[in-house]
Amino acid sequence: MAVTTFSVSRAVPRHVRCEHCGAEYVYHLSRVGIGEAGYGLTDSQEVVNQKAANAAFADLWRELDTGAEAVPCPACFKYQAHMTAAARAVQWGWVRGVGGQALGWLPVLTVGAVFAAVIAFPNNTDTAITIALAVAGVLVLAGLIAALAFRLSPCEPNRWSESYRAQRAAALAWPRADFNQFARNGDPYVEDLVTGREQEYEGVTFLWVPPEEIESEATVPLVLAEGQEVQVELSDADDDAVFLDADRVRNAPPGCRVCLRVFSVYRPRTATADEEPA
Ligand SMILES: [Zn+2]
């Protein structure tokens, strides 16, 4: 049966409240959604394309909600518990890198062993080759055992060296205040909103908040481009991309327009979340 495949990708800012020290930080999370649809007897190409696109978007949102990268907290340099799977991938990638280098050295070492064996047993080529093969075999076996032991060992990223974790945090994480400061002008996460509507969004200040602050109707600080700090009162009726009325921004300078954006937050994968939407 013919099948149409559709893929869609998106990047979002992921908000984390550190479970170790309470600091808030943000990192870049990017995912791809894949959708497939087959042709029924009466389906037109258009219908099948739409089905595949719908499936791809459903997959994308699921991946964005339940996915996580291994990004340590920029305040205490610790990883969150839900990042362990991603951390294992980082760790495994490192081992594969080392393993790849070892494999690269294997022919060199084997040739070296042949030379050494030929010098040691000048009149016995068979013995020399046997020794060389044994050396290569032992190296491969040692590598396999090390990889297996590594695979079975628990992944504890918070025991990785602090300097490595600090370096990862510096490269990948922004403290929330830093993120809000550079993201208030829009870039880089509002393309979906403003493309084709640039005039409408001219001069708008974007304010990113986690969903929990909307639910609890929190008052959150916002530093405007001029350096003035204002307080924004959230309402539980707020949603992603809404414009906030001036009376919701305390001490707002005239003409101040605020567009609310909602951070991506981690949601554990559940049985129901995995079910295909009807
Ligand atoms: Zn922390």
Protein model, in words:
The chain is of the alpha+beta class. The protein folds into three domains: 3-79, no CATH class; 82-167; 184-262, Sandwich (HSP40/DNAj peptide-binding domain). 43% of the residues lie in helices and 21% in strands. Strands 1-2-3 form a three-stranded antiparallel sheet. Strands 4-9-7 form a three-stranded mixed sheet. It starts with a strand and ends with a helix. Bound molecules: zinc ion.
Number of strands: 9
Helix/strand class: alpha+beta
Query: Overall 3D geometry?
Result: elongated
Q: In order across it, which strands form the biggest sheet?
A: 1-2-3
The tally of domains stands at 3
List low-pLDDT spans: none
The hetero molecules present are: zinc ion
Instruction: Give, in order, the helices and strands.
Output: EEHHHHEHHEHEEEEEH
- Mean pLDDT over the residues: 89
Output the number of helix runs.
8
* Beta-strand percentage range: 15-25%
Task: Please give the largest β-sheet.
Answer: 3 strands, antiparallel
Share of helix, binned: 40-55%
Whole-angstrom Rg: 27 Å
Ends: how far apart? 22 Å
